[in-house]
Amino acid sequence: MARALIHMPATAKRGEVIEIRALIGHPMETGYRVGAEGKLLARDIIRQFVCRYNGEQVFGAELHQAISANPYIAFYTLATESGTLEFQWDGDNGFTHTEKMKLTLTVSPS
């Protein structure tokens, strides 16, 4: 089972640009390395990362063999409404991992 770490604010003002940082623990085996027995190790990489904000995709990335183990992704999005951000990683051998984080909009004093 993979372990994901996500850093983002729990609250934001409407229209504020927020930074989101996501890291997932995964070995990212390229399929090009030779193991102890002299045979190629099977490829095992995360191929896709998607972030959805209240069901709408706000960021996506295709990953390839050149990505390091434990891939780290940082991006920005606009806080438009309170809701849920869903992070999904998909990869080889049926790998899939999903995390959810809440974002609450705050009202700025007038």
How are the elements arranged and paired?
Blueprint: E1 4-7, E2 11-13, E3 17-24, E4 46-53, E5 56-62, E6 72-78, E7 83-91, E8 96-106
Parallel strand pairs: 2-8
Antiparallel strand pairs: 1-3, 3-6, 4-5, 4-7, 7-8
Protein name: Thiosulfate oxidation carrier complex protein SoxZ
Pfam families: SoxZ (PF08770)
InterPro entries: Ig-like_fold, Ig_E-set, SoxZ, SoxZ_dom
Uncertain spans: none
Please tell me how large the radius of gyration is. Answer: 17 Å
- In quaternary terms, these chains amount to single chain
What's the overall average pLDDT, rounded? 94
The number of helical segments is 0
Order of helices and strands: EEEEEEEE
Quickly name the level 1 CATH class: Mainly Beta
* Share of helical residues: under 10%
CATH homologous superfamily grouping = Immunoglobulins
Structural class: mainly beta
Biggest sheet, spatial arrangement of strands: 2-8-7-4-5
The geometry reads as elongated
How many structural domains? 1
